[in-house]
Specification:
Blueprint: E1 21-23, E2 30-32, H1 33-39, H2 62-73, E3 78-79, E4 86-87, E5 102-103, E6 106-107, H3 108-120, H4 162-169, E7 198-199, E8 202-203, H5 204-211, H6 215-226, H7 235-240, H8 243-247, H9 251-283, H10 292-343, H11 348-358, H12 364-381
Antiparallel strand pairs: 1-2, 3-4, 5-6, 7-8
Helix pairs in contact: 3-11, 5-6, 9-10, 9-12
Length: about 375
């Protein structure tokens, strides 16, 4: 009987399994039929005008429910994994450092805190008849991992895995598998790749979770690199170097390539200014009045100014080519190194915090690097 352990609002007695009970169609209050007849209607009829709806109150769990509600109301704020600043519940980014808490639309900081609170909760607080928790429960995954930004891109899988891949791609992010909390499991994450598919000893699904955006594209490149194909070109790194490295949170190579680009720009500035001044001079020159000797002198001067410009532009092209060729191997090494650090962490909260901090992409870092480069370039122009 679903009203067992609830009390009748008419007589105050607890409902028994064999009681004759009627339910008010307006406020859903259950009551003994005798109480209904005695009151001439619903015992809570005087509250109908206020929009009253019966919520029920179990006699055996009144105090524990109150304790659980008080615990929920006093739950701690969201702690930023980057700067440890407490943020209000529902925050999508840190109010101090601006770090984003969301990946694939899921607030990982909030999810990690929920997992911790569920781990700590004693079921006897809510129901005193419940058995004490002996083993950690299995929790639903916080997000889809290994799926990347676009679901129409398939990873490189054997032919017999195609049906499995199609089934996964047809599911939504909310319903897909994700974080695994099973004891003794070697897999941290689940996703579209087979559980036994690894790259340099790292599960492909774990790599997909760490890479996040465009994960399928990079995992395919990592597979080719691991198979012995050493050449792999990254066009994004070629055109957007050094900012692509900052976008993928590879700060060391980003700083190196930005320094090379800055030094090249500083050295190139005097030659570029001389070339532009000479171009302005030619634009205002009356070519009809030029003698043959003057024309030869201008040609020689133009060749003299163009040679250093050609050298600098060639050096810039070489730097971009180097960035394009080493970007994927560097990103693969970075991903493997960081995931090994994740696997060494003791609990789920720290793993999720680590992914938030070092995984995925950072749209703001390329902008910050660009403005820093411009400021350093302006400062250097005063000395050269």
């Amino acid at each position: 009987m679903r009203y067992s352990d609830y009390k009748c609002d008419g007589c105050g007695k607890v409902f028994q399994n064999d009681d004759d009970i009627v339910v008010c169609p307006e406020c859903a209050t259950p009551q003994h039929r005798e109480c209904y007849k005695e009151k001439g209607g619903c015992v809570n009829a005087h509250l109908h005008a206020e929009g009253f709806q019966w919520q029920g109150e179990k006699q055996l769990s009144e105090k524990p429910v109150q304790v659980a509600e008080e615990k929920k109301e006093t739950a701690p704020d969201l702690i930023c994994p980057n700067c440890q600043y407490p943020n209000p519940h529902g925050s999508t980014s840190c109010q101090r450092c601006g770090m984003k808490f969301t990946i694939f639309g899921i607030n990982l900081a909030e999810k990690a805190q929920e997992l911790d609170s569920e781990d700590d909760m004693d079921p006897t607080l809510v129901n005193p008849d419940a058995e004490p928790k002996m083993t950690p429960p299995s929790y639903p995954p916080p997000f889809t991992v290994g799926s990347g930004e676009r679901k129409d891109e398939k990873p490189s899988l054997p032919h017999n895995r195609e049906e499995q891949m199609e089934n996964f791609l047809s599911s939504t992010i909310e319903n897909a598998s994700g974080f695994s909390s099973e004891q003794g499991s070697e897999q941290l994450f689940k996703g579209p790749y087979p559980d036994d598919m690894t790259i340099d000893g790292i599960p492909a699904n774990t790599m997909g979770a760490f890479i996040a955006r465009e994960s399928h594209k990079y995992i395919d490149k990592f597979i080719r690199l691991a198979s012995g194909k050493k050449l792999s070109f990254n066009w994004a790194a070629f055109f957007l170097s050094p900012y692509w490295f900052f976008y993928r949170k590879q700060f060391k190579p980003g700083i190196i390539f930005m320094t090379l680009q800055l030094c090249l720009g500083v050295l190139m500035t005097p030659s570029a200014n001389s070339f532009l001044e000479f171009y302005d001079y030619l634009a205002g020159l009356d070519t009809a009045a030029l003698t043959e000797a003057a024309a030869l002198e201008i040609t020689a001067q133009m060749n003299e100014l163009f040679l250093p410009m050609a050298i600098f532009m060639g050096a810039e092209l070489i730097i971009k080519l180097v960035a394009g060729f080493i970007a994927n191997p560097l990103y693969k090494s970075y991903t493997v190194r960081q995931i090994k650090a994740i696997e060494a962490l003791p609990d789920r909260r720290q793993k999720l915090s680590f992914i938030l901090k070092y995984g995925g992409v950072s749209p703001l870092m390329p902008l910050a690097a660009y403005f820093a480069e411009q400021m350093l370039s302006m400062i250097a122009s005063y000395f050269f």
